[in-house]
Amino acid sequence: MGDFKLTTVEEMEAATARLLETGAKVGADAWQIRVKNQTPHCKFGEQGICCRICSMGPCRITPKAPRGICGCDAHGIVGRNYLKFTAGGAATHSDHGREICHTLHEAAADGAYKVKDPEKLIRIAHEWGVETEGKDIYDLAHEMAEIGLLEYGKPFGYQRFLDRMPQHTKDLLIKNEIAPRAIDREVASSLHMTHMGCSSKPEALVKQSLRCGLCDGWGGSMMGTEFSDVLFGTPKPIDTEANLGVMNADNVNIVVHGHDPSLSEMICEYADDPEMIAYAKEMGAKGITVSGVCCTSNEVAMRRGIPMAGNFLQQENVVLTGACEAIVVDVQCIFPALGPLSKCFHTKFITTSPIAQMPDSEFIRFNAHTAAENAKAIVKMAIENFKNRKPDLVYIPDMKQKATVGYSVEAIVKVLDGVTNSQVDVTGTTKPLLECVTSGVIRGAVAMVGCNNPKIRPDYAHIELMKKLIANDIIIVASGCSAQAAAKAGLMDKRAKDLCGAGLKRVCELADIPPVLHMGSCVDISRMMILVSELAKDSGLKISQLPVVGCAPEWMSEKAVSIGNYVIATGIDTFLGVDPYVSGSDQMGALLTEGTRQWVEAAFTVETDINKLVDLMIERIEEKRAAIGI
Ligand code: BF8
Ligand code: SF4
What we know:
The chain is of the alpha/beta class. The chain is built from 25 helices and 16 strands. The strands form 4 sheets. The protein has a 6-stranded parallel beta sheet. Helix 4 (74-106) crosses helix 22 (558-569), helix 9 crosses helix 21 (525-539) and helix 18 runs parallel beside helix 25 (610-627). The longest helix is centred in the first third of the chain and has 33 residues, at 74-106. It is globular and about 65 Å long. The model has no long low-confidence stretch (mean pLDDT 97). The site of FE(4)-NI(1)-S(5) CLUSTER with Oxygen has 14 residues, from helix 12, helix 19 and helix 22.
């Protein structure tokens, strides 16, 4: 293994502790302090049995008061809360996808946004039955963007991308009235159903949660991913680095944070501009380093090799280094704490989206039409801020790992072409991967996704689960903050193959891949849905029969609940390390952990003990193998 060693959670925690000392010096607040102030949490909220959707309430369910004033019981209240949670997540991901459609609509040969993957655009156009022959690629881009935007509000029919599903899955969803219609309709219907005096029947609320999740995964998120690839390029394996040590004390440090690559791509573009680099030197820096936090980081790492400073619960740490000239954000998962925190340092906290406006920030409104000038202004502002740095506050933990990222479905299919023994030509399909699974060289796959959450020791669950899974010859595809946890630990370094069981290690060597494959941001979980669909079609099995499970051990956001719903609705059992506020209703618990199988052949398992969670996943994978006789 040479000098390769994983970074431990203890080492990451020590680095954080050192940064919090700087924070204490300047009187900064931190999530570690706020968690203490908020603990213990409200028990009614935790169990999902508080209802405040009408002004006769709020109503809270207790043994003495088993119904709200309208007569709704715990099951109805928990169910409505769960559906609202889902709708919030589906709306968020899907609105991101909508923004990408608008960016595609702005693309022009001489504009800031270009079509970087015309082949993919043409491929999707053919899927959607759009004539491409003789059409200018930008005319086609605008036409496809409009069709995409209509998926949000079309009056009839289901999401177009359902045609990518195996027929069995699609039929099942239509038969059970779970197939998603227009995206905005599913979100609006969910809010309609959860209004006072509408649905209080758990079955109906769970079914709509599945449908609403699907409009995200197979609608908004999938469009977000696919059209981002068209605009910015479909990811291919690329080397990068991860953890706070990617920031450079000699350079102007710009940290991009949020989700929509329309902003971060432009920032990266201008930070690379020789004119800007010369300006940075003029201001006393040696150069410009752009690094990322959260899903935006995944987007630009996958396409440009931009290093990853950290994931969700590390966002305050980048400011605490004292070396961050600007943290530039767009939407989602941004701590409002960054405003007051940046005021304790010289850091500029730059918000850019009308969707996410925060106190104590500089607001530079970013839009597709003026993207180039906005990005230039932001990069300049960061450079000019370099001189305000306080050298005695600068401390960047010397901690980073190498990572190979960029495993889109297209890239996975390509790299695994090399591992087949097949006599017939199986290139360009998932059959080589299937061969590895059926022969038992790889036992199965886990899709590791989701956030950090102070309720779970940050990153610990992600990293420990992954280590045990790969040691058991289970390959991992990862996205979102889970992927960054893996990268920070070193699990996306190809040398991590030595931590695998013999079978997976052999596959990693033959295909020259790390055992944990970075598939992108959270909207890119749609890539995972496409991959399992292809595996099902190429094997002739149902998705629910494949030895594949999903896992979100440290999830926290509404988006994560939406994702969980569409992953199980696609037929994949999903394991959660945090309870989605449903413990107040045994009926809701039973539906989510077993009842959904009657409609979608999959369900959730909730287990907060991480060691048990991983064993349950391995058990489930082995059960699935036994059931299909491999
Ligand atoms: O969409 S994993 S903390 S950054 S919600 Fe947020 Fe969770 Fe991170 Fe991306 Ni996903
Ligand atoms: Fe109470 Fe019913 Fe109003 Fe909810 S909808 S706050 S349970 S009266």
